[in-house]
Amino acid sequence: MIIHRMNDILQGVAPLPHLGVIRAEGEEAAKFLQGQLTQDFVLLGASEARLAAFCSAKGRMTASFIGFRRGPAEILLVCRRDILAATLKRLSMFVLRAKVKLSDATADFQLLGLAGNALKTIAAGALPAWSRVDSGAAHVVTLYPADGQPRGLWLAPPGEPAPAGPALAEALWQWGEVRSGIADISAPLVEAFVPQMLNYESVGGVNFKKGCYPGQEVVARSQFRGTLKRRAYLVHADAAAPVAGQEVFLAGEAGQPCGIVAQAAASPTGGWDAIASLQTSAAEAADALRLGAANGPALTLQPLPYPLLDDI
C-alpha cells in the first residue's frame, strides 16, 4: 500500500538547497579522482554517473558524492553543502602536480530533484540508477527509486527553464531520499562509517577492482574477510523525530549504543522514517531498538528496498 501512497505523494520538482557542486577540471581530472574516491572515474562514460565516497586513511567516509562527466576534462561532484568547503580543502591537499583544478561550482548551477512523471518526461524509459541523460543544457542523473517511484537529480546552468511538473516540497523529497535506503554524508556523520556501514558496496558506491585510494585496504578487508558487522537499515519512529548522528540503543542496554541514525525525514503518512547504521546482531533484535537511550522511543525495523551484497 505504501507504494500506491508514494506514487501520489512523491510527484514533481523539488528544490535542493542542501546540495552543492565541486568541479574537477583538467586533463587529469578523472585520473586524480580515481586515486581519491571509492569508484572508477577513469572508465566513467558519458551516459553514466557514479555514487562514490571520499575516505580517510582509516577507511572512514568524510564525504559522499554523485559524480558525472560534463565534458572530456570536466567532472562534477554533487555533495552536501555543509561538508563541501572542508571536503574541497581536503581534496585539494592531494592535487600536488596533477593537472586538475578543483573549485566550488555551486553558484554555477541549479539543482532540482525530480520524482515520478517529472522525471519520466525527460528520461523516457526505465533507466537504471546512476544513468545520466542530457535535456537541453541540463544534466539528469537517475537515482535509486523510493518504494518504486522513479527519482532523478537535475542540474543545469542558472536561467535554464526548470522541467515541467508540480512543486514538490523539499521535506517530501527528503522523505523519498530516506525511503530509497541510500544515505549521504552530512556534517554529523563525517568519519562515522566505512562505506559498507551505509551499504555503499550494495548500491554502486564502491568498486573493488579499481586502483588504490585512501582507506582502500580497510574497505577491502571489511568486504573480503567477512567482517561486516554493521549495516544500514530502514527504521520508523512513531513518537520522536530522529536526527542524523543520534545514537540507537537496545532496550535495557544503556552502556553501549548499537547504531547511529544516518538520515531521517518526517513521513507524510505519520511518524518519521530514518536510515540507521546498526550492528547486524542488534537488527536481529528488532523489537528492542530504541532511539537516543535504552529507554527511549521505540524504532520499528522495515525492509530494505534493495538486496545486500554478501561478504566475499
Which short descriptors sum up this protein?
7 helices; 2 domains; Elongation Factor Tu (Ef-tu), domain 3; alpha+beta; Gyrase A, domain 2; six-stranded antiparallel beta sheet; five-stranded antiparallel beta sheet; 312 residues
Describe this structure in words.
The protein has 312 residues and is of the alpha+beta class. The chain has 2 domains: 2-180, Gyrase A, domain 2, CATH 3.30.1360; 229-303, Aminomethyltransferase beta-barrel domains (Elongation Factor Tu (Ef-tu), domain 3), CATH 2.40.30.110. The protein is 17% helix and 30% strand. The chain has helices at 2-9, 29-34, 81-92, 117-120, 170-180, 216-224, 280-283, and strands at 12-15, 19-25, 50-55, 61-71, 74-80, 101-104, 110-115, 132-135, 138-142, 151-156, 230-237, 247-250, 259-266, 272-279, 289-291, 299-302. The strands form 3 sheets. Strands 15-12-13-14-11-16 form a 6-stranded antiparallel beta sheet. A 5-stranded antiparallel beta sheet has the order 1-7-10-9-8. β12 and β13 (259-266) form a beta hairpin. The longest helix has 12 residues, at 81-92.
